[in-house]
Backbone:
C-alpha cells in the first residue's frame, strides 16, 4: 500500500478523536462531537427543544448516560459501559436493580455468528433497558442474581445538530449530509463525518461557484427536523450527497437519487467510472440513510448516497468490529478525493456554443492541434474535437465527458482553452439542476 500522506492521517485521527464518545440521536455525546468539529470548520450548533413538531414526527426526549454495568455476586463488573459504550442498548431507560439470570437474559443482545463482537442495538422509540454483550460474555453468566445499573436519563432537553454554510458566487447550494448519532462505530458514522469535515475545510480555502451546506445530524429524526425548519432554503439545493461508510477499503457504491438521472447522479457515476477500480451504481431505494428524507416526494431533492461498503452488507456493520482498524487513512483520503472530483464536475459543468458550427475550425493554425508523435490523435486533441462537435448549446461538458468516455477534468480544461481562443461561447447557466 502507498505511504499515507498527511491528509489521510489527519482524517483518521479525527475519527479516532470522536470514536470514544457515546453518541445517540440526542444528548451530550452529539454536542461534544460537534464542539470537536468546530475546531475544524465554522459550524453552527443548533438546539431544537424536545416536543417540537417536525412534520409527522416529534423531537424526542434528550438521552444522556454516565455509567452502566452488570455486576456479579462478587461485585465484579462482568459487563462494563466504560469498556465499550456499545454495551448499553442505545437510548436505554435507567435501571438500578438486582435481577435473576432469566430476567437479565431477556435484556441481553448478542451475535452468535461473531462470538467476540459486541452488537450495536438501539431502542429509540420504545422504552426498554438492555445490554449488548459478546456471545462469550453471555455464555459465561451463571444462574445467579446480578446487579444491573444503567445510570441514564431521558427527559426534556433538545435535539442537537451542526450546520455549516459556505457561501459561493451563487445562492444555489450543494448539500452534504452525514449522521452523527452512532456511538463508537468508525465506518458507520465517523467516516462520513471526517470526509465531510475535510471536504468543507478544502472548500473553505477555494473559490466556489455554488454555496455549500454541510449538515452533521442525527439520522432520520435529525434530517426530518432540519427539513421542517428549513423549508424555505430547500428550493436552493441543486445537488446533494449523503456520505456514509466511506472509511473502509471496500469498493465504492453510489445510490442514485429518487430522480435517478440528476446531475449529481451522473457526476458521481462519471467520477467512479473513470477510476480504474471496481464500483457499483445502484438505483434509488426508499430505505438506507437520510437520502430517504431528502428524496421524499414533497422535496424530491437531487440527493444521492455515496458509500464504500454498503451498510448491512459487511459483517462488521453495527458491531464492535466497526472500529478504528476497520477504517484506514488511505480509504478515507480516497473517499475525499472522489468527493472533490464530484465537486469539480458540479463547479465546472457548463454549456457552450461553437462559433464555427459549419465544419471543424482550423485547430492547427491556432496551435490547438498538437501532434503526439505516437501516430494516434492523443486524448487532448480528441477532447477538443468532442467539445467542438457537441457545442451546440444543448450539451453540457458532463454530456461531452459521458459520450466521449474522457475524464471530465480533461474536457473542462480544454473547453476553457477553446473558449479563450474565441471558439466557444459560454451559454447562460441553467439553474434547473438537470441537464
Ligand atoms: Zn447505522
Residues:
Amino acid at each position: 500500500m502507498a505511504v499515507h500522506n498527511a491528509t489521510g492521517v489527519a482524517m483518521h485521527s479525527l475519527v479516532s478523536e470522536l470514536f470514544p464518545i457515546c453518541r445517540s440521536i440526542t444528548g451530550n455525546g452529539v454536542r461534544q462531537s460537534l464542539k470537536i468539529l468546530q475546531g475544524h470548520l465554522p459550524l453552527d450548533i443548533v438546539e431544537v427543544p424536545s416536543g417540537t413538531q417536525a412534520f409527522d414526527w416529534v423531537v424526542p426526549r434528550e438521552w444522556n448516560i454516565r455509567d452502566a454495568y452488570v455486576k456479579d455476586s462478587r461485585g465484579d463488573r462482568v459487563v462494563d459501559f466504560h469498556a465499550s459504550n456499545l454495551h448499553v442498548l442505545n437510548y436505554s431507560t435507567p435501571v438500578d436493580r438486582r435481577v435473576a439470570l432469566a430476567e437479565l437474559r431477556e435484556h441481553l443482545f448478542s451475535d452468535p455468528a461473531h462470538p467476540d463482537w459486541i452488537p450495536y442495538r438501539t431502542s429509540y422509540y420504545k422504552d426498554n433497558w438492555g445490554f449488548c454483550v459478546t456471545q462469550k460474555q453471555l455464555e459465561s453468566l451463571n444462574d445467579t442474581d446480578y446487579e444491573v445499573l444503567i445510570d441514564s436519563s431521558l427527559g426534556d432537553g433538545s435535539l442537537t445538530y451542526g450546520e455549516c454554510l459556505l457561501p459561493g458566487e451563487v445562492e444555489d447550494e450543494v448539500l452534504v449530509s452525514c449522521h452523527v448519532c452512532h456511538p463508537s462505530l468508525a465506518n458507520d458514522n465517523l467516516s462520513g463525518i471526517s470526509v465531510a469535515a475535510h471536504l468543507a475545510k478544502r472548500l473553505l480555502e477555494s473559490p466556489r461557484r455554488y454555496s455549500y451546506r454541510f449538515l452533521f445530524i442525527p439520522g432520520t429524526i435529525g434530517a426530518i427536523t432540519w427539513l421542517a425548519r428549513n423549508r424555505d432554503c430547500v428550493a436552493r439545493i441543486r445537488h446533494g450527497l449523503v456520505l456514509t461508510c466511506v472509511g473502509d477499503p471496500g469498493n465504492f457504491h453510489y445510490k442514485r437519487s429518487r430522480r435517478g438521472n440528476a446531475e449529481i447522479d451522473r457526476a458521481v457515476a462519471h467520477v467512479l467510472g473513470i477510476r480504474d477500480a471496481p464500483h457499483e451504481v445502484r438505483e434509488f431505494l426508499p430505505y438506507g440513510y437520510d437520502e430517504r428524507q431528502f428524496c421524499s416526494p414533497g422535496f424530491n431533492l437531487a440527493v444521492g448516497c455515496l458509500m464504500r461498503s454498503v451498510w448491512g452488507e459487511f459483517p462488521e456493520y453495527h458491531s464492535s468490529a466497526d472500529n478504528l482498524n476497520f477504517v484506514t487513512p488511505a480509504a478515507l483520503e480516497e473517499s475525499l478525493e472522489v468527493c472533490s472530483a464530484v465537486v469539480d464536475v458540479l463547479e465546472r459543468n457548463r454549456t457552450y456554443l461553437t462559433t464555427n458550427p459549419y465544419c471543424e475550425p482550423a485547430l492547427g493554425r491556432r496551435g490547438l492541434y498538437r501532434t503526439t508523435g505516437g501516430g494516434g490523435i492523443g486524448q487532448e486533441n480528441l477532447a477538443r474535437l468532442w467539445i467542438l462537435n457537441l457545442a451546440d448549446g444543448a450539451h453540457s461538458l458532463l454530456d461531452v465527458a459521458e459520450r466521449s468516455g474522457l475524464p471530465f477534468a480533461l474536457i473542462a480544461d480544454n473547453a476553457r482553452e477553446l473558449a479563450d481562443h474565441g471558439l466557444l461561447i459560454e451559454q447562460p447557466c441553467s439553474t434547473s439542476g438537470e441537464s
About this structure: The chain has a mean pLDDT of 96. The chain is about 30% helix and 25% strand.
